[in-house]
Amino acid sequence: KLDAKRWFISDGWNNGKHQNCTWSRKEVSQADGKLTLQFEKRQFKDRDFVCGEIQTKKRFGYGTYEVRMKAAAGSGLNTGFFTYIGATDRQPHDEIDFEVLGKNPSKVQLNQFVAGKNVGEQKLVPVAGGADAGFHDYAFVWEKGRIRWYVDGKLMGEATDPARIPTHPSKIFVSIWGSDTLTSWMGPFADPGGPVKAEVDRVAFTALGDKCQFPQSVACTVGE
User: Fold this and answer.
1) What number of CA atoms fall less than 13 Å from residue 28's CA on the CB side?
2) 21, 137, 146, 173: which could join 51 in a potential S-S bond, CB 3.0 to 4.6 Å?
3) pTM, to two decimals
């Protein structure tokens, strides 16, 4: 289920000129144990497209962050699972990312921000069979002085420079959105001609030192 005490559904705004869609709660739905986030053409506020995002109401610190999801394909689209805190919460901009760029869903991008600066390598790593073709497990372990990113349980990236590690407790986000302007990164946008969906099977957080919560969890298999 989508617990309204835990999750906030973004609705009625966008994140800036780079985003060509307005967040809409109508693009977020839950059924049969799956969450669906949708992108489609529908005018809302000052945008011709709408898109879906959920975020936690609570902030989380060091620990294991996990999602099992099926991303969307399509140039100019972005399916993301990430932690973020920033100016809206009167905090510095810290962020840790998994982003599937729909122009090439055979890979997922790993990245991080510290105090508003992109300090990550924007590393692209493969997703076996394609992030859009089925459900895959994405996890990162955030510690003081280290981040480790995993895809389907396999270590795919690591950051160990303390200056490049976020330090502020952050909210958890899952989203799908599009851009007309970030073409060099996300590819040229084209109207997909109908609704495009990203699906989520589960989202989990396990604090460092806590017992792992389910057998497939990276927290069960990776030492701290």
Assistant:
1) 23
2) 21
3) 0.97
